[in-house]
Write a structure and sequence with these properties.
Blueprint (H helix, E strand, L loop, with lengths): L6 E4 L5 H12 L3 E6 L3 H15 L3 E5 L7 H13 L4 E4 L14 H29 L3 E5 L12 H21 L4 E7 L10 H9 L9 H13 L8 E4 L7
Helix pairs in contact: 1-2, 1-7, 3-4, 4-5
Length: 245
């Protein structure tokens, strides 16, 4: 796929990894639909930065993906603004510490809603425009912990495991017109509160003995959109070997 002029919807694009993904696509000349929930100021800065990279159009779209009706409304707003949708990057994610002894049903429901349900229904809502594109694709940002869950983040890990199942379901449901693939990042961007000793410990747990970067995830997204024209239902790890360590 030649990304120049394509409409790319990136959820959770105002901050962190989602922001880097959106800017990477903007640098290729894509038109960016930047979704955010609460980070309005950062989303507007992202759009300004995206426009400066290639002169391509970009705009912000607010949606609370905890709400069941949000995916349909978001897809319609993007398609109305840009005239269609060519690529959907499901990057928005909820990541909260939920120790087993104190995790609540509400914790479970929030993670499942944002991390698994929303990508499924965003794909459903975007499907008509992705099919009309002639080369539409979806990239789901999952997590290596969907295969190897870690303690104190049960609902998060379970929701990412669910997203890996969603990835396969979407690939089957949307073939042959739309390709659907997942990226499984590892330690590419540490939580803001993580100290240096803990970062070093996390790096040592990977086979490459170093932390990754959001740019590595963005490059993987570009690969799946631009070059992986015979891949669907696949899972691409970007984790320094953490999954198999």
């Amino acid at each position: 796929m030649n990304l120049k002029g394509k409409v790319v919807l990136v959820t959770g694009s105002a901050r962190r990894v989602g922001r880097v993904i959106a800017l990477a696509f903007a640098a290729k000349g894509a038109r960016i639909a930047a979704h955010y929930h609460t980070s309005a100021g950062e989303a507007r800065k992202l759009v300004a930065g995206a426009k400066s990279l290639s002169g391509a159009d970009a705009d912000v779209f607010r949606a609370n993906l905890l709400e069941a009706a949000a995916p349909q409304k978001l897809a319609e707003a993007v398609a109305r603004r840009f005239g269609g949708i060519d690529v959907l990057i499901n990057s928005a994610s909820l990541y909260e510490r939920t120790p087993f002894a104190t995790a609540t049903p509400e914790d479970w429901d929030r993670h499942m809603a944002v991390n698994a349900r929303a990508p499924y229904y965003l794909a459903q809502a975007c499907a008509p425009w992705l099919k009309a594109s002639g080369d539409g694709c979806i990239v789901n940002i999952a997590d290596w912990a969907g295969h190897r869950p870690y303690a104190d983040f049960g609902p998060y890990c379970a929701s990412k495991a669910a997203l890996l199942c969603v990835n396969k379901l979407l690939a089957k449901s949307l073939a042959p017109e739309i390709r659907v693939n997942a990226i499984l990042p590892g330690p590419v961007l540490a939580p803001e509160a993580m100290g240096e000793p803990e970062k070093k410990k996390v790096a040592e747990a990977t086979l490459l003995k170093r932390l990754g970067t959001p740019d590595a995830v963005a490059r993987a997204c570009l690969y799946l959109a631009e070059s992986a024209d015979y891949s669907t239902g696949a899972e691409l790890t970007v984790d320094g070997g953490r999954l198999i360590a």
